[in-house]
Amino acid sequence: MFLGKVVGSVWATQKEDGMDNLKLMVIQPIDFRGNEAGQQVIAADRIGAGVGENVIVSRGSPARILFSGRTVPVDAMIVGIVDSFDVTEAGKEE
Q1: Which of UniProt's keywords are assigned here (predicted)?
Q2: Which residue has the higher pLDDT, 23 or 21?
């Protein structure tokens, strides 16, 4: 999993079966200071995240578990909307 910021959305007029109810969002990975931390990814969204929100993203096989046995071509899934995060000095990156 990683922390990211929703920076955009992707519109697809045609999607694979099973993806009709999914929004596709562009996610910029961030560190715990809010700085960019990697390349942007496209993640499926079933929880209603919006542009500008910080989110938790699951990648790989765990992202597909939410589909109850259906085969859906999803590699990244938004699994939480982050209200706030806080890092103590002990968790400070060097």
Answers
A1: Bacterial microcompartment, Carboxysome
A2: 23
